[in-house]
Amino acid sequence: MSSQPAQASSPSGLKAVLVVPVVLATLVLGLKSVIPAQRQPAATLESDTELRWFKGNVHTHSHWSDGNDYLETIALWYRDRGYNFLTFTDHNVLANVDRWVEIDKTKGGRVAFDKLKAKFPDWVETRTEDGKEQVRLRRFDEVSAKLNVEREFLLIQGEELSDFFASPDYGKLPLHINAGNIYEKLAPAGGSSVAEVIQNNVDSVNKQRERTGQVMMVHLNHPNFGWAVRAEDLMRIIGERFFEVYNGHPGVNNKGNAERASTEKIWDIVLTKRLAELRLPVMYGLAVDDGHDYHNIPSRKSEPGRGWVMVLAPKLTATSLILALEAGQFYASSGVSLKKVESSDRGLSIEIDPVAGETYTIEFIGTRKGYNPVGTPVMGKDGKPLNTTHRYSDEIGTSLAKVEGNSARYDFKGDEIYVRATITSSALHPNPSEVGDFQQAWVQPVLGPACPPQND
């Protein structure tokens, strides 16, 4: 499926860089005109009569793989808490066949089963085999038909392609790629390096999208899980526009450590290299739950409600949401809400939807032309290089400005390659993935005046 960068205007005046087929984008997003452009046009992300903010999570696990609850109970948890969409992404499986499981051997056991019966008393199917009570796991189509609410709540079928690379030096490195709105199950594609495994799985999803005509979303999960993915691997992937800058699982090392880069630093290195050197498109940052544990919240496990995306789209359908995400019409959050994000050839401005009693720090981050591009390997205590992102100059992903308040604007100086923003609240996250996390939001990068024209 070929895609070209394009400038488009909606009836509401919203403009955005589209990286999806022009005709499809025009039909789905209701855009008036399509004008080829190499530069990123002005964009205003704000709810109006044509566009709404939709809150959603695109990384979720259930009893179909290693989660400890049922699809329908998980979906109800999100729906009851004001989410508009949820993508189920169990490991290497789709919930599209009939499956019976022994209740007491599920990860949720009797606790999850009793909750299921209480919430859906006329829905649960059980049987006894060899003296063991079993329950039928409801298929995705059954659960979505029961719980979807038109214009308010949508379930999306997905799969987490859970692959790995067996490195002779670093052991088995876990490499997980999510496919959203997938049409049929895919098998992990494998490869002879970390980058090749990622690329092969991304290609597999995109080939299914091209073959079926169904709009799908592919993204790299938790790069610091098992310290598997370096910025040097991710920066070269073709056809991949998203990765998880925030993942709510407490074991994925979002903040890195003294030897290894945080996910935000990885993002800035990837952006700088892709835009300034490789001439590849922007990589967007997602916030997700990666939920596995739905009982006894909070319990310092991998629980729901920690990270999400806010997508500005004309309607609540999988196609509309994914096209809006691919156009950068969203922000990621772990608790901070935004009213408006504006970008133009002059700069980037942000308006927060404040919570009484909270204060906010808005930090604009980017890389300027003339940065030092050289990275050096990080050495371990044994004197050998670690499998981790190289160390680069602080000129890459530097703090361009920091503002205290509910709104801020950054005006381009003329030498920026890109600018993005991180907003941090004074309020601690109520159930953080790492102790001491504050509530945050991540605004997607915009191209600066020094960004070279991009290939797509």
UniProtKB/TrEMBL annotation:
Keyword Transmembrane carried by entry: yes
Q: Which UniProt keywords apply?
A: Membrane, Transmembrane, Transmembrane helix
Q: Which GO terms describe its molecular function?
A: 5'-3' DNA exonuclease activity; 5'-3' RNA exonuclease activity
Q: Which InterPro entries match?
A: PHP_domain, Pol/histidinol_Pase-like
From the record, give the transmembrane residue ranges: 12-31
Q: Which PANTHER family match?
A: EXONUCLEASE (PTHR42924), POLYMERASE_HISTIDINOL PHOSPHATASE N-TERMINAL DOMAIN-CONTAINING PROTEIN (PTHR42924:SF11)
What's the name of the protein?
PHP domain protein
Organism equals Caulifigura coniformis
